[in-house]
Amino acid sequence: MKRTALIAILLLALPRPRAGGQEWREHAAHIGTTARVLIIGTRPDDEDNALIAWLSLGRHIETAYLSLTRGESGTNVMGPEQQAPLAVVRTAELLAERRRDGAHQYFTRAYDIGSTSADSIVNAAWPHDSLLKDVVSVVRAFRPHIVVSLFSASGGRDATHRLAARLAAEAFFAAADTARPFTGATSRLPSWTVSRLLTRVDSAPLVAESVVALDVGEFDRGAGRSFAEIGGDIRQLQRSQAPSPAPALGTVRRLLRIDSTRVGNDPSFFGSLDTTLARFGAGTPAEARAQFDTLRSAIADVSALSPTAFVDSLAARLARVASRTSDVRLAMRCGDVYAVPVCPGALGDLAVALNTIRERATRAMLGASGLVIDGTVARELVAAGDSVPVVVAMYNGGALPAVVRRVAVSAGNVPSILVRDSSIVIPPGGSIQWSTTVNLLAPSYHWWQINGLVSGTSIHDFRITQRNELAPQLIGGEDRILTSRVEATLAIGGVDVPIIERPLVYRSATTVRGDARHPLAGVPATSILLERTEEYERAGLPIDRFFRVYVSSARSTPDTLAVTLRLPLGLNADSVTRRIALPPFGARNVFFRLRGTLSPGSDTIAVTARSIAFVPPGQSQRIVRLDPSAEFRLGVVVHEYPHIPSQQFVRFSSDRLEAVDVRVPPRLHVAYVKGGDDLQTSLAQLRVKGQLLDPALLSVVDLSGYTTILVGAGGLAGEALTTAVPALRDFLRNGGTVVVLSGRGEVAESGLLPYPIAFDTVPHRVRDPSAKVRVTDGRSPLLNWPNVITPRDFDNWTGDRARNLPVAFDGRYRTLLSMGDPGETPTAATILSARVGKGILIYTSLSIEQQLAAANSGVARLMINLLAAGMISEKDR
Questions:
Q1: 601/593 Cα distance (integer angstroms)
Q2: pLDDT tens digits for 503-553?
Q3: What is the CA radius of gyration of the chain?
Q4: DSSP conformation letters of 46-72
């Protein structure tokens, strides 16, 4: 292996540790710590931040968190992002945490399906062999000495937690099994033997020797806080999650049950495992033994002197450690796949440890020498195929001159752009800048945003083939994916040390150094955004509407585009193609007038844009041609956040039209009180006459003009709506209809319901979207007017069938349907209705808001029936 290639690989080992005064001294003191711990959970919010802080920051153990999913199905308390967009936010939040605690971050391909008690649902959504291969791949890449499962394989209500525990246990054995056919399916990585499998438990079992007890409330004098407090502070970066309780001062216990061990039952964390460099002595190849012995001596020297040594002297010693680590790796002749060593057994253990030592030595060396490397770009978003100016600045805050041998910049996987390849001295207190440009060849998409899911499953498609079995996103770890960087070689104490600083960032004139919220990102040259990606149309009714397409350019040069529609049968446009001119970085709204009538069913309006290339001068300028290589089919929305870097959200430029055969009573007039949903658009698409009403107005406006009041999911939790309950009850008594969508305790305690219902402390769901639905009252008008509801209306649901189901309800409520997940007792609590005076109140736990957002035709028909419940004539009730 060439030395330059090896150096680039070694520099990917660790993210920058948390910032702090002279924290580099502590890292230097523990530079030879080579133990590794992998923690496994199901979702981002499962992580144990206190334990991670205790391990990574307190014991300097290389730690990683493997989350099976990115938390797509959770609740977002910060903003509107849900499902796949929420995965983008939560991934960024975890990576921000890892930059603070110095740990690594891994994910499998699993798309979060939410919590469920049914193992059958989890097994259907997440094929077991696929996820086991993913977990084994991570174990073989990270090579942990200890695996900690955050959940137990038995007990607990959430089957996804139980699966995570089973996968941790199976991977403990499968990762070491050379006979099982995993090597080819796990990016060709060799087997790895984990020393211990521990499971976090709430209480100690009867045999105390089988439990490791840790105090993560241990006080860190340097930080002035306990590690539990440090972890709690880091946890606050998960702003999309509900806040976690702050830890108290004092002992905070973590009990870890020893489930499997290859190093004895000693109740200490590592048991009899040797976690020092001494364990590599006998296993070091003969050709690398001399270099390894020299490295051990250099590390011991740094560890002993780091608390008190003069900074410049220590910087030189750290440079020698970094350089000698590279010497050992070269002598070992151990190759790498996406920065992961592929040599097996003890040799692979040494190779991974050397990567970590080198990165720690390099970071500590920069801190000791006072050297700053900073790369900035002229703008954050750059069109694929375009270039952007870059400024690389270096500052010498130390007491000795620094020598710069080489400087280069790079973005994505393109070759580095050389900025300087000859030596230059930066004196103490001096600074220097270089300018260049960098090209971006492709957009910086998250791979899971565009690959989709494997058919019939809830796992992301890696697009792995027999010819290309590698999954760099899986084995490398998300925190080590390089998007852009500055590469520099510095001479410290006469020793050349290559360094990578990432990422290149954009900063305004008022933004201070260190703010990395605007990293350089590639975007499509042309972005196409539609107002909606799924919507309803009423089948059989004439359509006459404008269709808006927002087109923007990220190019630094003018562009001329042909914007083209592909329309469903029965729909026509005044023109299927519009030609527009965009200035540099310009944008335009393009409108098409649509007319026609649709038959029941689903179809799509697809929009594409192509750059128009003119023929060379001298030929007819009236002749143009479309450039097929420059066709654009998606759009990108960029959001800024105060706590994480700005993020790109990818949307394909297609709008699914669900032409639904639905009858809507002409007199139906709905007042919609918004909860955690937004149903106003869906109601308007179904041509339901309605109005969004502020809950504070319910007690003061005249409600007699409405037939129905629709309270959105969670809407009763608001204080303003709670005070309006008397007005709602009067509305009911006078013959109105109130429909309340899924809620929990606030529904039972609001005083609106005529009879009691009860909820469990843990939200109860019908998770399987294909769960069989049994009609319990087929003669109910709610299932027969104005639309006849059939079993087909419950087809093609997405996500949950129902959520926040009552566990008990008064027998005076009427029920319509019964359903339940496989293996569970069906419940009839999905729709509860009751007469209140002349009116009717309906509470439903069906995931109506989610299905309406997905433009499901059956839910639209059922929703109209519920809204029109009070309009049924007396003889039909």
A1: 22
A2: 999 999 999 988 999 999 999 999 999 999 999 999 999 999 999 999 999
A3: 31
A4: G--HHHHHIIIIIS--EEEEEESS--T
Nearest to 604, CA basis, from 565, 576, 632: 565
Which uninterrupted H or E stretch holds 41?
strand 36-41
Q: How far apart are the C-alpha atoms of 242 and 547, rounded to whole Å?
A: 38
Contact 196, 147 (CB under 8 A): yes
Residue 631 in 3-state DSSP? strand
d(CA 653, CA 609): 10
The Cα 425–Cα 490 span in angstroms is: 10
144: cis peptide before it, omega within 30°? no
Backbone phi, psi, residue 522, to 5°:
-85, 140
| Residues recorded for the chain | 877
CA 276, CA 632: separation in Å to the nearest integer? 54
Angstrom distance (rounded) from CA 61 to CA 793: 55
Cis peptide before 754 (omega within 30 of 0): no
- What crossing angle do the helices spanning 311-332 and 286-305 adopt, rounded to 10°? 160
pTM of the complete model: 0.91
Contact 572/548 with Cβ under 8 angstroms? no
Residue 649 is encoded by which pair of tokens? 């959200």
Provide the H-helix boundaries in 143-258.
Answer: 159-174, 227-235
Helix (H, G, I), strand (E, B) or coil at 115: coil
For residue 450, which amino acid is it? I
* 632-675 confidence digits (pLDDT tens): 999 999 999 999 999 999 999 999 999 999 999 999 999 999 88
